């Protein structure tokens, strides 16, 4: 039996203190319990931040807060969303919301942010995907299908999917996105087709198949989803995948190829390959690239996108094992003294100035620019369990337990190996706490994995 760690109880106490109530009902958890004067926007409920908290509550047999959160964000989706006179798509989910208390009138109201208050004013593409994934997790965990079957929930799913399945000028099945539209919420050169959004897109489509009612509208949408899944999985597995063989093929690419027979479909110039990638790529192992577009490949490693690729079965069994091989081979670079690097390597010098816009928070090996984020423990653990390599997760958790409680559960860590508490990191960060709890509970009871993991979907072949 897996022995609970002494800090497990402390973590649960902190998570409960982070709960937010609206009209006496729990509706989420605030981003951080930091007592510092400069709270900024850490006193509200972020959709993506709440996901590990939600999973922890579901695994602990406490689904009420998750149900309330799903319904409340669904209500917010129906709001009119305008930014500088421009109206956002009907299906956009909020990035965050806060509960405002008026002690004079004894009233409570909710204020939502759809990107109009966010740093950089970027709408969150990932919020809608996380919402669908969480709805499916709630249904799998509780066995209660009535929530997902509610007409309002079905409409919410359809509105989200209408946004991302809409036809346009794009020739790829991937989703075109702005910089800062996901967990990496500041300029980091991930605009275009970032792996994080593509993997979440794929997973949300898979989860939607589980929760959509098969009425007339549902069947028509299911057909569109299945077609997109086939195209998206082919594209990602073919063009976003990198291992030693593929790296060598790119190294030998010919350019200016025209016609359907082109091997170098995106016209990537071999001289654009960064020097570090040749040393980083082990003999055995591989990963999904950060981004692929015309004349450009972002060779950086991004943890969230690769873990979601495993959990959603966007990665094949062979690719999933190869990602684990890479993590083991490059343990010091990707895990080091604090799991887990959000991306690797950091952008430095001239590239940093151009790509990040001289962002002082994203200096090298800090924050989103090669920082280490404890919240990613739950994703790493889930991926490890799915691939049958739980020992990798156990090793990472043991590393984290040496410091997380002592350091006050920081938001992120700085430095090449994650030795330093982030220079602007908030303490008692809720998703650092929840990510640890989810990782521990999944290791103790791997059956929890079912609510957040999808096996290779053979049903999608039924239409073809």
From TrEMBL:
GO biological process, one term: sucrose catabolic process
Catalytic class of the enzyme: hydrolase
Entry EC number(s): 3.2.1.26
Alphabetized SUPFAM superfamilies for the sequence: Six-hairpin glycosidases
InterPro entries (UniProt xref): 6-hairpin_glycosidase_sf (IPR008928), 6hp_glycosidase-like_sf (IPR012341), Glyco_hydro_100 (IPR024746)
Molecular function in Gene Ontology: endo-alpha-N-acetylgalactosaminidase activity; sucrose alpha-glucosidase activity
Reaction catalysed by this enzyme: Hydrolysis of terminal non-reducing beta-D-fructofuranoside residues in beta-D-fructofuranosides
Pfam families xref list: Glyco_hydro_100
Annotated function: Invertase that cleaves sucrose into glucose and fructose.
Family: Belongs to the glycosyl hydrolase 100 family.
Name of the protein in its database record: Alkaline/neutral invertase
Species name: Deinandra increscens subsp. villosa
The organism's taxonomic lineage, starting at the top: Eukaryota, Viridiplantae, Streptophyta, Embryophyta, Tracheophyta
């Amino acid at each position: 039996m897996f022995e609970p760690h002494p800090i497990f109880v402390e973590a649960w106490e902190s998570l409960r203190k982070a709960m937010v109530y609206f009209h006496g009902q729990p509706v989420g958890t605030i981003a951080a319990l930091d007592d510092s004067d400069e709270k900024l926007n850490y006193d509200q409920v972020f959709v993506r931040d709440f996901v590990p908290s939600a999973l922890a509550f579901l695994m602990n047999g406490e689904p009420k807060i998750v149900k309330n959160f799903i319904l409340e964000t669904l209500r917010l989706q129906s709001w009119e969303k305008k930014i500088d006179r421009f109206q956002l798509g009907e299906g956009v989910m909020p990035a965050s919301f806060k509960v405002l208390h008026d002690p004079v009138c004894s009233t409570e109201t909710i204020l939502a942010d759809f990107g109009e208050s966010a740093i950089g004013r970027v709408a969150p593409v990932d919020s809608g995907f996380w919402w669908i994934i969480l709805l499916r997790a709630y249904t799998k965990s509780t066995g209660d299908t009535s929530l997902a079957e509610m007409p309002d929930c079905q409409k919410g799913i359809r509105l989200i999917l209408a946004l991302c399945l809409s036809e346009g000028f794009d020739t790829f099945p991937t989703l075109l996105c702005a910089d800062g539209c996901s967990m990496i919420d500041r300029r980091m050169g991930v605009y275009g087709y970032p792996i994080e959004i593509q993997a979440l897109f794929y997973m949300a489509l898979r989860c939607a198949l589980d929760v959509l009612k098969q009425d007339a509208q549902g069947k028509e949408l299911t057909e569109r989803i299945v077609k997109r899944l086939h195209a998206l999985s082919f594209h990602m597995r073919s063009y976003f995948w990198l291992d030693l063989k593929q790296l060598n093929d790119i190294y030998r690419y010919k350019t200016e190829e025209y016609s359907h027979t082109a091997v170098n479909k995106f016209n990537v110039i071999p001289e654009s390959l960064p020097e570090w990638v040749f040393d980083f790529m082990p003999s055995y192992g591989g990963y999904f690239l950060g981004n692929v577009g015309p004349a450009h490949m972002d060779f950086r490693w991004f943890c969230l996108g690769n873990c979601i690729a495993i959990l959603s079965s966007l990665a094949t069994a062979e690719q999933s094992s190869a990602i684990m091989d890479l993590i083991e081979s490059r343990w010091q670079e990707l895990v080091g003294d604090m799991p887990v690097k959000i991306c690797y390597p950091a952008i430095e010098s001239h590239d940093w100035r151009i790509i990040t816009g001289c962002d002082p928070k994203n200096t090298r090996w800090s924050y989103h620019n090669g920082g280490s984020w404890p919240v990613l423990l739950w994703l790493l653990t889930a991926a490890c369990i799915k691939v049958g390599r739980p020992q990798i997760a156990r090793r990472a958790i043991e590393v984290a337990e040496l410091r997380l409680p002592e350091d006050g559960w920081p938001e992120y860590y700085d430095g090449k190996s994650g030795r330093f508490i982030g220079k602007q990191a908030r303490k008692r960060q809720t998703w650092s706490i929840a990510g640890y709890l989810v990782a521990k509970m999944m290791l103790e009871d791997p059956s929890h994995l079912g609510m957040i993991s999808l096996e290779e979907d053979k049903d999608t072949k039924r239409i073809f």
